[in-house]
Design a protein that fits this description.
Blueprint: E1 2-3, H1 6-26, E2 32-38, H2 42-57, E3 61-67, H3 73-85, E4 91-94, H4 104-110, H5 122-130, H6 138-149, E5 158-162, H7 169-178, E6 182-186, H8 193-198, E7 202-205, E8 223-226, E9 230-231, E10 237-238, H9 243-246, E11 252-253, H10 261-282
Parallel strand pairs: 1-11, 2-3, 2-4, 5-6, 5-7, 7-8, 8-11
Antiparallel strand pairs: 9-10
The protein binds NADP nicotinamide-adenine-dinucleotide phosphate (NAP).
Residues 139, 162-165, 167-169, 186-190, 193, 206-209, 227-230, 260-261, 264 line the site of NADP nicotinamide-adenine-dinucleotide phosphate.
């Protein structure tokens, strides 16, 4: 069994991003990411702080907009409009979840698809599903990067994605399909989940339930990707896969922490560089 070291792959990606950022800066374009946080959600504050830190470490300018909980939808839309029009901004990220009085879909659709570095805008979702170049959500894109780094060819393999969220499950399925895997997307209403998993060469777990994937669900020699991040009562961080029992059966497996998690921010930075390069092309 080989451990897929997302921490190492993300460090390599960040190094690449930093080199690109310096090159862009030297040619007069400073890559810039605007991050909007509305409200006081503790986890969101932590995520946003990590994104800011990663930008600094990679020579990407980060412009933080911390807005109060009572910010109205129109105020948020007005800010996004300004950022859409600002030629010095390459990426716009609205940290989710938003307060309940704000319509998340409306906000995500208001971001220019050209600056949508999270890849959540319907235009980018459509591009991904059509196999066209656009922005791809960072977590599944990071998983593809790990597979690439370890020379794992998914073409012709049976892949099962557990979870159908817009952030992970669906884009993951599209990426695997675009790379010629035979993909089954499963969810809470799937009837024969165990058999589908057992028949899969690649198993991606994006459920949000600790230890959900057990040894009896996994094919011998499978490649197992654990997207889950679950905090147990004792403070431990675990994935959706029962790592101790599953790992011995796998050819490759991602650990939690240190697997998929570190890739998400690295791909956000990479998407910001991609957008900055598009700015150069347009100039
Ligand atoms: P989500 O929106 O809650 O989606 C969970 C999915 O799991 C849903 O599609 C749900 O099915 C499915 N599911 C729930 N119970 C199931 C069951 N018993 N059998 C089969 N499928 C079941 O979650 P998410 O945003 O995709 O995130 C999933 C996990 O990944 C979470 O632990 C999250 O923290 C983690 N995550 C990690 C990163 C990272 O950077 N590593 C990034 C994003 C998310 P239905 O659609 O039928 O409800």
């Amino acid at each position: 069994m080989i451990l897929l070291d997302g921490k190492a792959v993300s460090a390599k990606m960040k190094e690449r991003v930093k080199n690109e950022a310096v090159k862009l800066k030297n040619s007069g374009v400073e890559p810039a990411l605007a991050v909007i946080l509305v409200g006081e959600d503790k986890a969101s504050q932590t995520y946003v702080a990590s994104k800011e830190k990663a930008c600094h470490a990679c020579d990407i300018k980060s412009i933080m907009h911390r807005l109060p909980e009572q910010t109205t939808q129109s105020e948020l839309l007005a800010l996004i409009d300004l950022l859409n029009l600002d030629d010095s901004i390459d990426g716009i990220l609205v940290q989710l979840p938003l307060p309940k009085h704000i319509n998340t879909d409306k906000i995500l659709e208001s971001i220019s698809p050209n600056k949508d570095v999270d890849g959540f805008h319907a235009i980018n979702v459509g591009k991904l599903s059509s196999g066209l170049d656009g922005f791809v959500p960072c977590t599944p894109l990071g998983i593809m990067e790990i597979l690439k780094e370890y020379d794992i060819d998914v073409s012709g393999k049976n892949a099962c994605v557990i979870g159908r969220s817009n952030i992970v499950g669906k884009p993951m399925a599209n990426l695997l399909l675009n790379a010629s895997a035979t993909v089954t997307v499963t969810h809470s209403k799937t009837k024969n989940l165990k058999e589908i998993c057992k028949n899969s060469d690649i198993l991606v777990a994006a459920i949000g339930k600790p230890f959900f994937v057990t040894e009896d669900m996994v094919k011998d020699g499978a490649i197992v990707i654990d997207v889950g991040i679950n905090r147990l009562d004792d403070g431990r961080l675990v994935g959706d896969v029962d790592f101790d029992s599953v790992a011995p059966k796998c050819s490759y497996i991602t650990p939690v922490p240190g697997g998929v998690g570190p890739m998400t921010i690295a791909m956000l930075l990479s998407n910001t560089i991609k957008s900055a390069k598009n700015r150069v092309k347009k100039a």
